[in-house]
Amino acid sequence: MKREDFQKFLIKKLSDNYMYHITEIYSKDNTESFWGLEKRINERNICLVFLNKDNINNVEEQKYDGFIKILILEDVDVRTPLTVRNEEINNVIILDKEKNSIVYCPQELSEIGGQIYSILNYRLEIEKRKKDKSFITNLLIGINIVLYIITAVLSKNIFDSDIRVLVFLGAKVNELISQGEYYRLFTAMFLHGGLMHLVLNMYALYALGPLVEKVYGKIKYLIIYFIAGMISSVFSYLFSSGVSIGASGAIFGLLGASLIFGVKMRDKVGKGMVRNIIYVIGINVFIGVAMPNIDNFGHMGGLIGGIIISFILWKDNMFN
Q: Keyword set for this entry (predicted)?
């Protein structure tokens, strides 16, 4: 988050939560202005003004009973002296934007410091939730990347995977599955034939995964991903004789889940989302037909599996 965004966030939350009124404070030479907040506290007119280390001493202190400078810095080293006049040190609260923390708050300003502290904690919670929303997607991407690294090391080639290595690691091979190696229906979805194959699939997973993870929740997301991937492998086993690998079947399942979401929530998200998803599906089907060595039956199996399992898992009250 940029300094300006950090400052806007603080101003908005102080205004919304603690009834401060937004105002404008000018520099001593009247050439620039600063955001401020004013409020009457205990029969005193208090003003908070947001500054940085370059302009902290260049602000016109208007006639308030309490004039408090909120100094926002980045990567504060507490050993570094600050250019604040000694007589004003009790009127300054220092924040570290990068550490999302209060570096200095005098005892006299503990009430305001407590308000800012609660807002900083709230911001931290928001950031944690954002990260948590994509945890499963990031985990799946990580697993795919690790297995590709193993494949590349065994293949002695970072750009193209040796077919013998892929078979050894669990690619879908019809003859071996017929002999009882059913685990290949699962392991095949984590293997990739080359660096470009991996990059394209991981980009698609990165683009689609967070939406499905947020909409359906982490457990249902995993169920959709793995069942769609398994059905993709089954379709490939039944209708395609070639060796097959890749996460694209499971990713087509996420497209199916997105389609169900768009249809169910069309009154809230708009019909345009459904059209866009159908368009993306159509483009991918066309690419699959036009280009060689693409397991279209696996893609269709993943899409159908994703639609069916998402429809079963969907609850009408998920967004109520």
A: Hydrolase, Membrane, Protease, Transmembrane, Transmembrane helix
Among 34, 48, 127, which Cα is nearest to 95's? 48
Q: What is the pLDDT of residues 235-288, one digit of tens each?
A: 999 999 999 999 999 999 999 999 999 999 988 888 888 898 999 999 988 888
Active-site residues, by number, are 248, 299
Question: Do 145 and 265 belong to one domain?
Answer: yes
State whether 117 and 104 are in the same domain.
yes
pTM of the model: 0.64
- Of residues 82, 123, 89, the one with CA closest to residue 109: 89
- Among residues 125, 83, 89, 119, the alpha carbon closest in space to that of 101 is found at 119
Looking at the structure, tell me whether residues 152 and 97 fall in a common domain.
no
Token pair of 91 as six digits:
């009127």
Return d(Cα 151, Cα 162) in angstroms, integer.
8
Instruction: Enumerate residues 6+ apart whose C-beta is below 8 A from 59.
Output: 25, 26, 27, 28, 34, 49, 51, 69
For residue 272, give both structure tokens.
């345009």
